[in-house]
Amino acid sequence: MIQDTLNMDDLVTDTILGVNTDGSYHLLINRDILNLNMDDIVAIPDTVIAHNVNIPVSVSVPAGSQFIDQIEDNTFDFDGLELKKIMVRSGRALVEVKSPIATMCIVTLILPGVSKNGVVFSLEVEVPAGSNGNPSSIIQEIDLSGYEINLAGVNGTLFNSIQSQFRVKTDPNGGPVMVSTSQVVNFEVAFQDLKPSYARGYFGNRIIEEQQDIDLDFMDLVVAGAIDMENVNLTMTLYNGIKVGARAKIESLEGINAQNNSVFLTHPQVGPWIWINQALGTWDDLQASTHQINLTSSNSTIEQFIENLPNLLKVNFSFELNPYGNTSGGWDELFSTSFVRAFLTADMPLSLGMNNLTLRDTFNLKLGETGAIDPKSGNIKIVASNAYSFGASLSIQIIDAQNNILLTKNASAPIAGSSSLSNFAPIVPVNSEVVFEFSENEIPAVKSMERLVVTAVFNSPNSGQVANIFSGQFLAFRVYSSLKLTSSF
Hints:
mainly beta, Jelly Rolls, 10-stranded antiparallel β-sheet, 5 helices
């Protein structure tokens, strides 16, 4: 004998069910369609400052003398971003210096626009002696976490601009050394993996497109039929947590069921662009701007969408920054708390009317070795106690190792459902006995069974009338097998 008890907690593994005060279930859906943080919106590409510094004159340089002091303005290509200032949450700089000078040199790199706690970035390294044919090299890694980078230039009118100062002096403990105009000192600063905690500038006019598939795995078993639901409603909330003018578009929202039938959700605000104001505040008091789209049975196809029983939602969504260009004058702002989000929510009574709703599942099941005792006929009997209002008709298919259907059987009677549609739990369970009979001619198929496909067709009483489902309801069953045997000697 096999026995088990099923309720909605067993049937639905996703966290989408809630319980009302009267014990009835309600359906909860809370899913992100789009969720972008600061790094997704402003991705700073790796960039390099590189210069070849020529010796200005051929001369003998005394020990400890500075013979190079050069200032350069550097402009970065930030892939459409026009940044004036960033604060670095994490990242690094790799500084490499190559020297052909025939003595150890002290090299100082100063980045006037880069500072931490008010102190300007300055790095001093000792570079070993080298030659024209074999210049010496040194690489040093700098952690830029917590640094502020001013990219507006000395006068504050530029963007993506940083100044660098490069000084070289000979070993103060060495002797004089000859330098010439044929020699070149190379230096390179590679900014890598910069993640900002703050950014200001113009973030460009660009569209972020997102396509997302949301699996509703618990619907995979539904193969036919329909349900009717009452009071269906759904809300999509758009959040703009950046201080940038933006707009969003729900390109499409499609629900596809297990039979590959598709229903597109229609609504006046599904398809066109929707303007979303920029966020207000700063740092820890940032207030995202929101826009809500409420979808109901009266203004959309949400009821048909849900009743299609989708096991897959396909969402296409677009978000556009600065659709009207640089209207802020380079004062777009992003903080560590900035985000862009599209969030789908639904909270509706789980009141269902079932009309030939068909579920199908497959089980690995085979008869063990029978030896000299073979079954001649028999049956499988299911005794069910059903507290749900809907009943079910059962059928089975016996499948062999080659995936052939050997036998299809219908149960002798349906599993009855309660005739009560009361809105008060509990509903008194109804007992049923269901039998699958196997004749002597059908036993070879049973003996060859590798898998058992069970199909259940559910119907509510009174032709699909809508009824609540309560947390105290259950379907309990016991399975018995009975075989008539013959012995072979």
